[in-house]
Amino acid sequence: MNILIIFDSLYGHTEKIAHVMQEELSKDHEARMEHVLNIGLGDLAHVDLVIIGSPTNGGSEMEDIKLFLKKISDNALRGKRTAAFDTSVVKENRNPIIGKIIDWFGHAVNRVEGEMIEKGATDVKKESFFVDGETEMLKEGELERARVWARELVK
Ligand SMILES: Cc1cc2nc3c(=O)[nH]c(=O)nc-3n(C[C@H](O)[C@H](O)[C@H](O)COP(=O)(O)O)c2cc1C
């Protein structure tokens, strides 16, 4: 399978998740990862599985991911396997009021799913990975969880 992981990342957490997924998928597939700003419109042409990863930023994905999804053609994702993931802060370590606000805004993957469907995707697999709000590091086990999820996507 030809796989493209498109990501954006401000502080590196989303990039780390993308990286372990690419490493895992490369064992049996042609898998590459690219920052969203390095993707040209033609890059999706021969891809079987498109994975988009973004930090959750104010309940939404990063602006460059949004712009990318806006500019690709209406059927760019038709007939392809599709998946989206985000990284978000974990709720337990937050003040309950902030936790509620974060919940209210929601996760980037839900927005990305809708925008991928607008571009022809039919079944977008979604996952969120979590950063510990206190240590500002990916929660323990998240990289392994990303590897397992990546394998699920190619079953
Ligand atoms: C400006 C800003 C807004 C954020 N908004 C949210 C949010 O709405 N919900 C959430 O769960 N996390 C939010 N976060 C936390 C980030 O999603 C989280 O730290 C993410 O892992 C960062 O990914 P990166 O390291 O790839 O940049 C926000 C962080 C920043 C800096």
Note down, in words, how this protein is organized:
The protein has 155 residues and is of the alpha/beta class. It has a single domain (2-153), classed as 3-Layer(aba) Sandwich (Rossmann fold), CATH 3.40.50.360. The protein is 35% helix and 23% strand. It contains 5 helices and 5 strands, in the order βαββαβααβα. It has a 5-stranded parallel β-sheet with strand order 2-1-3-4-5, sandwiched between helices. Helix 1 packs across helix 5. The structure holds flavin mononucleotide. Flavin mononucleotide (FMN) is lined by residues 9-15, 55-59, 87-89, 102, 105, 131.
Task: Describe what is shown at a glance.
The chain has helices at 13-25, 63-71, 96-105, 108-118, 142-153, and strands spanning 2-7, 30-35, 49-55, 81-89, 124-131.
What are the defining features of this structure?
five-stranded parallel beta sheet, binds flavin mononucleotide, 155 residues, single chain, Rossmann fold, 5 helices, 5 strands
Q: Biggest sheet, in brief? A: 5 strands, parallel
Low-confidence stretches: none
Radius of gyration: 15 Å
Strand order of the largest sheet: 2-1-3-4-5
Task: Give the topology.
Layout: E1 2-7, H1 13-25, E2 30-35, E3 49-55, H2 63-71, E4 81-89, H3 96-105, H4 108-118, E5 124-131, H5 142-153
Parallel strand pairs: 1-2, 1-3, 3-4, 4-5
Helix pairs in contact: 1-5
This protein binds flavin mononucleotide.
Flavin mononucleotide is lined by residues 9-15, 55-59, 87-89, 102, 105, 131.
